[in-house]
Every structure is written in structure tokens, then in C-alpha cells.
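ok so I'm stuck.
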Amino acid sequence: MKGKLIAKILIIILTIILMIEILDDYNISKEEEKIKIDILNIQDKINKAKEKDTIYLSEGVFFENITIDKEITIIGNNTILDGGFSGTIVFINADNVKVQNIIIRNSGGYKEDSAIRIHSKNNEIKNCNIYNNRNGLTLFNSKNNKINNCFFHTNGQAIFCRSSEENNISYSQFRNNGFGIFLKNSKDNDVFNSYIYNNGLGFYQKNCENTKIYDSAICDNNQDGGGIWSFHSKNLFVKNSNINHNGAGIKLENTIADISYSNFYFNMFNTLRLINLKDTNISNCNIKNSYRNAVYAEDSNFNFKNNNIIDSGLYGFESKGKTKANLKNNYWNSFLGPSISLYGRGEAISLKPLKNKIFPWKIKEIENIGCSWDVNERFQKKEIKSIESKKNEVRDQDNDYDGLSNKEEIFTDKYGSDPYNKDIFIEVDWTGGNKPSNDYIKIAEDIFKEKEINLHIILDEELPFNDISSAEEFLDIYWDYFLENDINNPKKGIFRYAVAADNIEELYSGFVFMGLDSLDCFGMYIENDLKNQRNYDKSQIIIRTFIHELGHTMGLLIDDFKGIDNIITSKLFSKEWFSYRNYKSCLNYRYLPNHLSYSDGSHGKNDFDDWGNLDFYFFKNTDFTIPE
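replied:
not stuck anymore, here's the structure
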């Protein structure tokens, strides 16, 4: 009897345990189902929400493109919103929307595609990580939006602000984008306490008014791009900022600006490039260690006072055209004032004394001017894990150390790649009569072949226009004709891209360019070179410029050697003309355009081994930080 009772009790206990487990499994599956529903139905949550509601997103990856058409707040929690490389991911056309704590990635690759696109006012984007998009954030006909504490990387344009006003960008970082911030036809926009570095162009504006940049660092951007570029704009204010180690620190054309209390250190070409200016003031700045010119001015009228100009590689102040500047009360690195030659004691000046007022000057370095803070004390660069993992993956699987993994060389097998010899692939487009000739292509290929490098120049197509009007248009060409509006185009990271055109405005006659995250593109402005080198064959000029710019995509930059891209080496009997005569390289302006190769460093004093310093990974893992 007792045995039967015990058996019944055990059966009841086991039944209860089994029911509990079933219920637990049911609850877990219901929780999993809830997460799954969350992942698949953000738009449903938005549609069901009432005005001023808050939507909390769970952890996970949401594969959606959403539209926010009502006043709501969306807050993520380790949440990723992935657009699947199609269209705009978040479209906001309601006012007073807040989006916080979300990673937003993988938009489509067409010009209007963005991670976030805003057509409204009074919105806030906060604590978001926005990457791998055609445009990170687009503001169109938009007003009074706040972008706070966001990280933008690996975008064609991180922020594109068009026909918008009174927007504020603060406490944000911009790294490895084609353009960091681009403002067009906009006014009253502010950039505050932000860090813009390692981009093609840091900040770029056209036809804007009342833009303020203050308490920010714009550093280590492309040598042929720069920190701040402004065209046809009024009332640009730059204050208490560090603008260091860019191609041009600030480039102003047809712009009215006020630049004050800022530091400009180690900028590569012209720290300040000023063209067709009027009513511009530059004061209380430190301009030090410019690789070339501290200030270059052309047809400009401006005030330049109470600045320290110290240790410029070439001119402290170079003037051309109808420039009329007030240069009083500056310190020119000597109590004797500026020098009228490149070899005097003070900073060299090249100007017309009757039009430019220099005296009196300061006899010692001016104190208590410049920016009040140090970049490394205020900002810490954010890491991009995807870049580091790709870098390690390529190096681990690259038998010949040419920057291409074995897997990537399978893709290029049809072009004749060799996994046991270095390969370089370049796709070339051109306008008009600028197609590289087969004869000179063969010469270029033979030059590289002597160094056991296979150069593959793939002539792709003639572009349906003759001139390129701006850096903005060149960015569109990169996306339309190279990436073919596909951010995952397999050519990316394997091919470099080159364009030869009659005329390219805003950019140099030859230049390297970032259309996304790395320096894998260059352009050639052929008509300008033909004007300066009339006695040479056009085909020779094209291929010489081609090899020159290709070298930059392999890390041969001004930082590496003072003879690279030094315009003074072309001036007969100048000190640089003598100093770098042994540097027999197409990167040395003295040997334009008849020298088509790089130097091997074997020609004596002040030569440099270009071939031995080629970085085959640079075009896909670009870092503009000053070498230690």
C-alpha cells in the first residue's frame, strides 16, 4: 500500500516538474518571439505609436528602412539598424523627433541615399554610430536640428547639409569619410567641440552664410584635400580651434571670413590659401611648421595681424595678382622682421611692398594667442574595428605583400594577376581626348616590371562630359562610375580609380582623392599641365601625372621626404633646385614631365628610395597621421 502511494507521489512530482519545464520553455520561446518581432517590426511600432511616445528598441540587428512621420523618441540598446545596402535607412519628415543610441549602417549607394535623412526641424540625433553609407546624415530644407556625440566613419559624406539652417553639430567625431561635413546653400550652422580627422576633406562649404566652427580639431586630412574649404560664402567664423596637418589648413575662395585664436601646425601645402577675398580678418593665430607656405594669397584684400608665423618650409607669405593685405603687427620668426628671400633670417615674403603694409612687426613671439587647448588632451581617436580586422585579414592571407589577399587575387585572375608577384590594378576613365595612349601605358608597365611589379592599367570608359566643376562632382563620379553606386562593389579595395579630364575646378592639376574611406583614387587636370609644359607630348604628360599620383596612393606623401611635391625644386638655381637634384623621381617637380619613374635612393645626398618605401596597403588602410 505504501509503495503504491509513494509511486503516485513520485508521478505527481515528476508531472509538476515536467509542466514547469514546459512552461519555462514556453516563456523563453515567447521572449524569443518578442525579440524577433521587435527586430522585424520597428515600422509597426512607429505606426502604432502616439505623438510624443517613446519607443525602446531591444538589443539586436534590425533589417529595415523606416519612416518617422510623427513626434516620437526612439532609444536603442546595443541596437543596430541595417539598411541592407538599399535606399535611405531612417527618413524623418516630422518635427521634434529624437533618435538615440543606435548604430546605423549600410545605406544604398545612390546620391540621395543616407543612413538618416531629415526634411523637418527641431530634431535630435544623439549617441549614434553611423557608418558604411553613401551619406551618413542628410539635412534638406531642415532647421534647428542637433547632432550630438555621434561617430561618423566610412561614409561618402558624413554630413551633407543642403538648404538648411540653424543646425548644431557638437561633441562628434568624423573619421575616414570622403567629406567630413559638407554644407551647401545653407546658413547659421555651427560646429562645436568636434574632431574631424583622416578624411578626404574635413569641412567643405559652398554658398553659405554665418557658419561657425569653434573649439574643434580638424587634423590629419588628405594632403590634396584639406581641413576647411569654403567657396562663395559669407561670414565664416573659425575660433579657438586646432587645424593641424592637412593639405591646406584653410582654403578660402570668394569668401568673407573671420579666423582667430586658432593653431595651425604642420599643414602640408598652403596653411592658408586665400583667393579672391575681401573683408576677411585673420588674427591672433599661431601658424607654425608649415611644410610649404604659411600663407598664399591671390587677388585678395584682407587684414592679417597679431599672428606668429614660424618655421615655414618655403614662404611665410606669398602674394600674387592684385593682393592688398594689411600685415602689420605680426611676428615673422625674427626681431628683424620678414625676409625678402627664401634664405634670410626671418620668414620669407613674396609680395609687392607698396600694396601690402608690413611695418611695424613684432620683435618677439606673441604670447597668449592661438588655441587654448591641446588636441590629444581633449580628444581620443575612436577605433574602427572593421578596418583593423580587414587589415589583419589581408596581411595574413597575402603571399606577395601587394595589398591584395589571395581571395582578392582570384577576382582579378581574368586581368592576369599573379598571387606570387606584386600586382597593382587601376581602372581609368577619361573625358574628351584624354585617353592614355597604349604606347605610354606599355612604358609605364615596363617601368614597374623592372621592379618585379605587375602594373595593370584597365581603360574603362569615356565619361559623357569634358569638365569637372568641383570636388563635389568628383565625389559623384567616384560613386557613379567606379563603385557604380554599390558600396559593396568588389573592385573596392582591389582597384584604384583614376580620371583624366580637360579641366577639374577646385582641385589641383594632379590630386589624390578619397571617395569613401581610403586614398584609392586620383584625378588629372590635363589642360593645366599642358599650359605649363607646352613643349611636351600630351600622352607623356598624362602618364607622368598618372605615375606621380599613383605613388601617393602607395603612401609616398610630403611627410616622407621634403623633395616630394616641392614646387621650389622646379625654380632654376633655387636652393631646393640644387638640394634635391639627386632625387630623380617623377615626384620631384624639377624633373617634370620627362621623368616617368620613381627614385631608388642610389643617386647620392638628398635622394630618397621611393621604390623601397612603397606601401601597397595604403590605398585601402589610409592613415594620414604624422609618421613618428
